[in-house]
Specification:
three-stranded antiparallel sheet, two-stranded antiparallel sheet, 10 helices
């Protein structure tokens, strides 16, 4: 039983890492992953259960992990991230449900909560970009008539790009004047910005953060939950 459990966990984790890493590369390259990709990996992950003699405990564990499914589908539908990200988390719950090599607790939401920690990193990158531009005496807000608060927000979520690629515009023109548009962009319906010298927010593939969140789960468990429990 113990040997079967180890084999199941190791194979499942290996398959999950392969799925997420290859998927991340495809997402960066094409910014689109077909649904069949996740269905294929999820199906293989489901069949892995049957390498064990006692299937029921693994099915129960998978069923518990799939609690995340309706939540991520809802997030996808309101546009906070793409369908590939939602399907990746669902397939992950099938292939390696709540897998970890640490002694810290994990939940069905751990890949997502760990990814949320990594989500703050682009803010620091944006701030650094803007500070460097200001240090070079570039007028990054030339032509804008906005409050300091809005400008600070813009510096957190984006920067002025000379040649945008896979980014969303956060500026608009109203009555001939430039304005900052800091509304939430729908991850799938919004078109990428191609206009030069435009304030943009990077369209970072959230799948990269999910991959990082899963690796953190394997090594350290649920970071936020562990901090809360130990505080």
């Amino acid at each position: 039983m113990i040997e079967s459990l180890l084999n199941y966990n190791i194979i499942g984790v290996g398959l999950a890492l392969a799925m997420l890493i290859i998927g991340s590369v495809i997402d960066i390259w094409k910014r689109e992953i077909h649904d069949y990709y996740w269905i294929g990996f999820g199906s293989v992950g489901f069949l892995l259960i049957f390498i064990n003699s006692d299937v029921l405990p693994y099915l129960l564990n998978m069923g518990m992990a799939l609690i995340i499914a309706p939540f991520v589908i809802f997030i996808w539908r309101i546009g906070l991230f793409g369908g590939a990200d939602a399907f990746a988390l669902i397939a992950l719950a099938v292939i390696a449900p709540m897998a970890t090599f640490s002694e810290n607790p994990v939940t069905p939401f751990t890949p997502l909560s760990n990814a949320a920690i990594l989500f703050v990193m682009p803010f620091f990158v944006n701030i650094l970009r803007n500070v460097i531009s200001i240090a070079r005496h570039e007028n990054i807000f030339e032509g804008f008539e906005e409050s300091k608060f809005k400008k600070i927000c813009a510096m957190l979520i984006g920067y002025k790009a000379k040649n945008p690629k896979f980014c969303f515009s956060i500026e608009k023109t109203e009555k001939g004047k430039k304005k900052l548009n800091l509304t939430v962009h729908h991850a799938e319906n919004e078109e990428y910005c191609t206009k030069p010298d435009t304030w943009i927010t990077p369209g970072i593939p959230y799948l990269l953060l999910i991959t990082g969140g899963f690796i953190m789960q394997l090594l350290w468990g649920d970071i936020l939950l562990s901090i809360f429990i130990n505080s």
